[in-house]
Write a structure and sequence with these properties.
By secondary structure, the chain is α/β, with parallel strands linked by helices. The protein contains 11 helices and 20 strands. It has 3 domains: 67 residues, Archaeosine Trna-guanine Transglycosylase, Chain: A, domain 4; 109 residues, RNA methyltransferase domain (HRMD) like (Transcription Regulator spoIIAA, 2-Layer Sandwich), CATH 3.30.750.80; 190 residues, Rossmann fold, CATH 3.40.50.150. The strands form 4 sheets. Strands 16-15-14-17-18-20-19 form a 7-stranded mixed β-sheet, with helices on both faces. Strand 14, helix 7 and strand 15 form a beta-alpha-beta unit. Helix 6 runs parallel beside helix 7. The longest helix has 18 residues. 46% of the residues are buried.
Length: 403
């Protein structure tokens, strides 16, 4: 594998497969490749050409992934070196600090969002004084030392810590365990602030890079709706929706998650904020159905399940699960109640997700009115050239009884 910036091969596409890439879609799928020249190995910088041999773009090659090349430069002859990546990362960091105003040293923010920032295969999150880096391709991982140097140059930090997504690592042939790349080792729990709330985050073993930063704006919106309401946070993970609701003056807050570790950390964060939340460990789908049978009622319910479909083959099953959760929640909501239902499965279309909610409303015998359609937090930008990365859906709906 070549870890410098020298080209080490090329890919020629099958006829008819070039147009999305010419429109700056960054993914070259393996089944679109007609021929590979130069014997590149995973991680090498290569060029991509249409079936006639015309240059399209440059990117890092993978011999094992279903995405054979991730593209980031559409300029022929552009030098892909430290200066190139420093510009890209610097632009992403500046957007967060200057445009979005997220420079709170005690807060948490996504600084670099892979394709959304022109850095496919690289994610960087900041938790208080620590940076957490995810390398999603071997091409980026092979250059980790360079990226650490760039990050240290651009951002004041106590330490740079690497996390890896298990599924991505398996497809890309990455095998590194979580660990320190530079500086201090993060403590067992790092304390961050979000909207005035304090949270404990597990950078070593928590989901994603430790916290669901993509739901920040949606959590703050739920807090605005929670005052005086009886709130249920299903699939609560470490209780962020629940905690914000409790701090905003909810009449009562209950939360459920299947992970004992997550629930325990949620309790710690609740204690840190001095709020009263009833946490239950259990299967959220089953718990929703049981509460309905017990005649419980809530005024606001948040459904934020984990990814239920990782590929298109899993979409039908995922939609049944979304409908099941929506149906149970609608049965639990009092008239005029608010349902916040979320989907982080990027392969599930907005139309299908809405249809699942509509079907659930019919079966529940309730009227449902969508009052807001929300997406990921603003520090998770995406490019219109790659709509697949616009993955998070959040619907806020009001429910009433049928006339």
């Amino acid at each position: 594998m070549t870890c410098g910036d020298d080209l080490n091969g090329s890919v020629t596409l099958r006829k008819g497969r070039a147009k999305p890439l010419q429109m700056h879609h960054p993914w070259v799928f393996a089944d679109a490749v007609a021929r590979t020249d130069g014997k590149p190995v995973s991680g090498d910088l290569i060029t991509v050409h249409d079936h006639r041999g015309k240059f399209i773009a440059q990117g890092y090659y993978s011999s094992t992934s279903r995405i054979a090349v991730k593209l980031f430069s559409w300029r022929r002859g552009q030098r892909i070196d430290r200066a190139f990546w420093s510009r890209r990362i610097g632009r992403a960091v500046t957007m967060r600090s200057d445009f979005l105003g997220w420079g709170d040293p005690a807060g948490a923010v996504r600084l670099v969002n892979a394709e959304g920032d022109g850095t496919p295969g690289l994610i960087v999150d900041r938790y208080a004084g620590f940076l957490v880096v995810e390398f999603l391709t071997l091409g980026m991982a092979a250059r980790r030392d360079m990226f650490v140097d760039i990050l240290r140059e651009l951002i004041e930090t106590r330490g740079v810590f690497e996390r890896s997504d298990p599924e991505t690592s398996r497809h890309e042939g990455l095998s590194r365990e979580p660990g320190v790349l530079w500086g201090e080792t993060p403590p067992e729990f790092v304390e961050i602030t979000e909207g005035g709330a304090r949270f404990l985050v597990d950078l070593h073993g928590g989901q994603k890079t430790g916290f669901y930063l993509d739901q920040r704006d949606n959590r703050l919106r739920v807090a605005e709706l929670a005052k005086g309401r009886r709130v249920l946070d299903a699939f609560c993970y470490t209780g962020a929706f629940a905690l914000h609701a409790a701090r905003a003056g909810a009449a009562s807050v209950s939360a459920v998650d299947s992970s004992a570790v997550a629930v325990e950390l949620a309790r710690k964060s609740a204690d840190l904020n001095g709020v009263d939340i009833t946490f239950t460990r259990g299967n959220a789908f089953e718990r929703l159905r049981m509460l309905a049978l017990e005649g419980e009622r809530f005024d606001l319910i948040v459904l934020d399940p984990p990814k239920l479909a990782r590929g298109r083959a899993g979409v039908p099953k995922a939609l049944r699960a979304y409908k099941d959760a929506d149906l149970s929640a609608l049965k639990l909501l009092s008239p005029g109640g608010v349902l916040v239902t979320c989907c982080c499965s990027g392969v599930v279309s907005e139309a299908d997700f809405l249809r699942a909610l509509g079907d659930a409303a019919v079966d529940a015998g309730r009227n449902v009115t969508i009052i807001e359609r929300r997406r990921a937090s603003r520090d998770h930008p995406f490019t219109p050239a790659c709509l697949e990365t616009d993955y998070l859906q959040c619907l806020i709906a009001r429910t009433t009884d049928l006339d």
